[in-house]
Design a protein that fits this description.
It is a single chain. With about 170 residues, the protein is mainly α. It is about 55% helix and about 0% strand. It has a domain of about 110 residues. Helix 1 runs antiparallel to helix 2 and helix 2 runs parallel beside helix 5.
């Protein structure tokens, strides 16, 4: 009797699983990570903008409180002048704010104040012009101005909505 041999072939293993294209779960994870990153960046930017407003408001309130305690008009005008300059440099970093002086500085403040100046007063009025001379007056000389009007004018500019941009103010 003859042994019969079967015509069988060897076992063939399937091709190894490729890493590309990834499974749908990996695509979803990638999209989720990108979305989380975008949301994080947006929330951080919003928080930074609000933090700036809070810092400016806190410093302004500190200046007002110091004026209430001392009734020193010269110190008030000096402090408001410095705060306006610092805030404008922060709000408009691409412009040469530090180089503006005199009427150009007051015109810039009026142009960027978003029309919300207190009681119709503008920086180019007599009240606003105190900001030009007060920082340079001697300590024994007191300028003549209404401190409440100046504080309201500065507050309306400081707390107005400013867009950080490199373009010209509207």
């Amino acid at each position: 009797m003859k042994q019969q041999t079967l015509n069988l072939k060897d076992i063939h293993l399937p091709e190894p699983v490729s890493w590309w294209p990834p499974a749908p779960g990996w695509w979803l994870l990638l999209v989720l990570l990108v979305l989380l990153f975008v949301v994080f960046v947006i929330v951080r930017k919003i928080h930074a903008g609000r933090q700036l407003k809070r810092d400016i408001r806190a410093e302004f309130e500190s200046i007002k409180q110091h004026y209430r305690e001392t009734q020193n008009k010269l110190a008030l005008a000096r402090a408001l002048s410095v705060l306006l300059r610092r805030a404008s440099i922060t709000y408009y970093p691409q412009q040469n704010i530090a180089g503006l002086t005199g009427e150009d500085w007051l015109a810039f403040l009026d142009a960027t104040g978003a029309g919300k100046n207190a009681g119709g007063h503008r920086f180019q009025s007599d009240t606003g012009k105190v900001l030009l001379s007060a920082p340079y007056l001697p300590d024994d000389k007191t300028p003549d101005f209404d401190p409440q009007t100046l504080m309201a004018l500065c507050e309306s500019w400081l707390l107005a909505s400013h867009k950080k941009s490199g373009g010209k103010p509207s």
